Amino acid sequence: MKKLHLLLFLLSLTAFAQGQNADSLYMRQNYEKFEYNIPMRDGVKLFTIAYVPKDKSKTYPFLMNRTCYNASGYGNYNTYGHPSNYLVQDKYILVFQDVRGRYMSEGVFDNMTPNIPGNDKKNKKAIDESSDTYDTIDWLLKNVKGNNGKAGIYGISYPGFYSAAALPDAHPALKAVSPQAPVSDFFFDDFHHMGAYLESYTPAFPVFGIQKPGLTKDDWFEGALMRMFANAPHDAYDFYLRLGPLKNITEKYHYDNFFWQQFVEHPNYDEFWQKRSILPHLKNITPAVMTVGGWFDAEDLYGPLNIYKAIERSTPKARNTIVMGPWSHGGWAHEEGKLTHNHIYFGDSISTFYQKEIERKFFAHYLKDGANPNLPEAYLYDTGKKEWKTFDVWPPKATANTQLYFGEKGKLAINKPQNGKAVFEYLSDPAKPVPYTSQIEGLTFTPRNFMSDDQRNASRRPDVLTFESELLTDDMTLAGEILAKLDVSMTGTDADFIVKLIDVYPDNEPNYEGNPKNIVMGNYQQLVRSEVFRGRFRNSFEKPEPFVPNQVTRVNVPLQDILHTFKKGHRIMIQVHSTWFPYIDRNPQKYVDNIYKANEEDFIRSTIRVYGSSVIEIGKRN
Fold this sequence. Notes:
Oligomer: single chain
Strand order of the largest sheet: 1-2-4-3-5-6-9-10-13-14
Number of strands: 25
Largest sheet: 10 strands, mixed
Number of helices: 14
Distance between the termini: 51 Å
């Protein structure tokens, strides 16, 4: 059970931070550990661990991490690189807390607890993550000696959401907040993307969908987890295809899972999902905010970008910074030396630079009155040039918008409209879906490598439309938001649309010495940005609609932001297709009210047509 807990902890929380564990001996020599059960306004007590510096000649700010992944995992004088060793050595009162209903905390757990606007401390029933954070800070200030009256909070992934959820109606002592790889809205982050269910995340549901039987430091959901992992298949594509429609997941694996049942009962963006989004509540922000994300984060790329933008819109004068690096989920929490994502090498000591020069200085300034680091509005990594860039506004205003057009014979034209009447078609077959990765992968919690994967396997399939530019004669930087405006028709009544933006390397690209020998970088088709859009939601995520067969219809597919320089001698490629398996579930392609309840016979082949009037716009979206 302890091994299982450690696996979940590393996978879901700190992205393999085991290589950067804080020195346990240093912690024991310099910190005292205390455990508290902190009462909330409704009487529920939350289990909390605090490490207080032994040096009593100074006062220290609180640096909090609120988690659903077991605060007791930090109980052995170890932070697992989270916070970083720099922050540990700078001396803060380090606080780890089980959120309501998890592990050693009382109460009932709810995923993405809906925010209740206004912090009415007299209303004992008005409970959300903001109120629990407020009450925790208030108690700590009054009961833990040696504090300087200031608090900060940080967290990666789900704890990133808890950090963002502390912002509405924040406690006056909360001065610095860093949501990192934060979930912001479960209909667009993690388990859904633009209305499509991420079937590859199916094994993770026991972690979030089974209430614990009582106070515990162990993983009570192990039995449910083992339904899928006891004899875990080595080929997830084959496993999920044989499993069939999503209704079989309900029957075989998640029949007692309340979180899964919520997905089944709420297939559309109804009030259930809407009230769980933190974005509408990010108003009148008073703490300094530094949101952190990875350009290759398969789980939470939407979250950091949209949390930053929501604060920019609602509170223009807020001290609001975004940092985006060449990492996968939470990769900045550990240092690999040479940073690679899948087969792509980005540079050396990139995480150390972030931890030492950005994160460390952010918290020191706002919590310890340290020197002003003068952080830019946006500190972003160009994943093509492989260098950091700074911006005073994001998306950048100075960058010219770019339009990509589909031409005949697979031509991709840059800023030159093509024949708008041209028709490009493919036969989409749910029985033979396009694999999302070039490699065979076994059952996993959350796939990650595919975010920069080689797309040559997809471009050679007849059910994938591929458009490629001429060789670039100069470097070309694409920066900002991406919107694919697709004009489509189909013989069915529903379809998904996957749009990929790809960097095609030259034939003479040298192989990277750190890669397996079979990885050839010449003509490598590196995925730079991608997104899926469930076509039924083209007019409303709340009220889906079927397509009219063979009627040309506009489908707008928003992709997440980009900062990537396509180098001279490279090509730009766009791919469009309608299955991406098993990263996302299969669309039956015959409209049914609830895909979670679709039958095998509902899945049909459909001829999909994309028209030359389509365009992909990159830059600042109006």
